[in-house]
Fold this sequence. Notes:
Elements: H1 12-27, H2 32-35, H3 38-41, E1 47-50, E2 53-56, E3 59-61, E4 64-68, H4 78-87, E5 92-96, H5 99-102, H6 117-126, E6 130-134, H7 165-182, E7 193-197, H8 211-221, E8 227-232, E9 246-251, H9 259-262, E10 273-279, E11 290-292, H10 295-307, E12 310-318, E13 329-331, E14 335-337, H11 356-369, E15 392-395, H12 396-399, E16 407-409, E17 430-436, E18 441-448, E19 450-455, E20 458-464, E21 469-472, E22 480-486, E23 491-493, E24 503-510, E25 513-514, E26 518-523, H13 527-530, E27 549-557, E28 564-567, E29 573-578, E30 581-587, E31 594-597, E32 605-613, E33 622-624, E34 632-634
Parallel strand pairs: 4-5, 4-12, 5-6, 6-7, 7-8, 8-9, 9-10, 10-12, 11-34, 13-23
Antiparallel strand pairs: 1-2, 2-3, 13-14, 15-27, 16-26, 17-22, 17-26, 18-21, 18-24, 19-20, 19-22, 24-25, 27-32, 28-31, 28-33, 29-30, 29-32
Helix pairs in contact: 10-11
Amino acid sequence: MSTWTLRRRPGRRLGLLVLVVLSFLVLRRLDWHNLMPPWLRRRQLGLQTKDQDFLLEGSAFWIFGGSVHYFRVPRQYWKDRLLKLKACGLNTLTTYVPWNLHEPERGKFDFSGNLDLEAFIWMAAELGLWVILRPGPYICSEIDLGGLPSWLLQDPGMKLRTTYKGFTKATDHYFDHLMSRVVPLQYKHGGPIIAVQVENEYGSYNKDPAYMPYIKKALEDRGIVELLLTSDNKDGLSKGVVDGVLATINLQSQNELNLLTTFLSSARGIQPKMVMEYWTGWFDSWGGPHNILDSSEVLKTVSAIIYAGSSINLYMFHGGTNFGFINGAMHFNEYKSDVTSYDYDAVLTEAGDYTAKYFKLREFFGSLSGSPLPLPPDLLPKTTYEPLMPAYYLSLWDVLKYLGEPIKCEKPVNMENLPVNDGSGQSFGYTLYETNIASSGVLSGLVRDRGQVFVNTVSIGYLDYNKKQIDIPLVQGYTVLRILVENRGRVNYGDNIDDQRKGVIGDLYLNGLPLKKFRIYSLDMKKSFFQKFDINKWSSIPEVPTSPAFFLFGLSVGPSPADTFLKLEGWEKGVVFINGQNLGRYWNIGPQETLYLPGAWLNPGPNQIIVFEERMAGPMIQSTETPHLGRNQYIN
């Protein structure tokens, strides 16, 4: 990819002559652009549509794209994944932009480290890839609240993804900041971005007819000049379109290929065909199977799409990982949260390894390229480390005294409205609610998503979507009722995204009477959380450790750290942290049995691993070179 720039040339006479000629052309209202020499016309037209074709600078162009999300891949591995994308015969990178990660607190933006969007896009340019940007503000993407920041829900009347004033005001402020970074990355400014998506799958939501025109205008008003497009699945295809914006389709089955002609050609007139998301696999939910899609089926559908005259984007080319607490959830008949792995059974595995899909697609796209493809990069090494025994221990109840004074309030407060993080509330993690009780009875209330109930420090069960009440036994003496509530992931797709507040929602009742005078601890488990209890606070492992608790491990690594997968056999449910990085959740209900640990996050020499276990600790942590993502189930 070349970037064309104009250099100053000496000679005032030549400059004066050019000025006179341009003035003459303007006055005559002639199309001076077509009279300019080709070297001056570069970077003027960008990606355009003409009848059934895409044109890039006036030449026919096919989009062979693949999705990779920078926020799901360690920054040190971005180049590896993009080189593999290019070696597969693809020419375009697509990525979402997660608002909730870039503006974690209202008005405070983060584009550093793994969130350095500009560095990711320029890297794609350097490797010769074009970029289609999907900036939202809603992105779905199996990420918490579809990428919308949870602090929006502090407004009790909030109507997400509409022209409700509270939402548009926040979106405008975010777009002001984001687009100032994106505009210079556009094709016509010398960057690789050839198209920008207007929101995402809005036709399936369709709550406000004024919303999509508002988003289109918000992009254009802030300097977006490249081709705009929408993206919808079959459920919302007819309702997600916007005048002046190219409509594209999301699908997986060959049975849906007729939409390319029946909708795009007939309802939208003559326009290029584009499958914006061809789903190469699927995501997994806790308690379910590991979804897979046969590689022969993928090749058959991809070739059918292209032979139908359509451009294509593979979603996902490389899924990566829902590091930390960023996973989303689905809630139709039942609430189901997504697992930590976003392997997606994609073209590359979660750790960036090649699959049968990769080699079949590389051969296919290679047959279309007209020139030899670059060689695929070597795989990154994997290793098995020695089994790890916990060295130190700290119960959650002991941790509380190091966290400072709890929040004190008459009634329970949901996570998003807690007075923390400079007024932006709590987005992720756990919240602990405490109050004193004087009697036994039936405890009831609305807990989202899962609340472990304790009498003093003894666990007696759970409150969640299905279990809304629990018997509290009679305890002699001073009694503290505690509920440890976990946000397991806000819904990212569906009609109920406005109703995704977490923690205790409303009052808690004992025998029908509301409980009062709560002490609330925000346990977001960010890096700053662990800085509150240093190594001097930890104790040796008791013979029978009580949970919830934190367990500290030491991992010694040689001079060349390599990727591995942690296996927590015997542990029940919790979170793993390596050198302050949150690897994500584990849960023995599966399907996922291992956590991906990138070697890039390990230091030569000593490394610190902390495990927060909710229920029952295992004897050790093991590692393996091979991931175990659960029992396979072919996608229907």
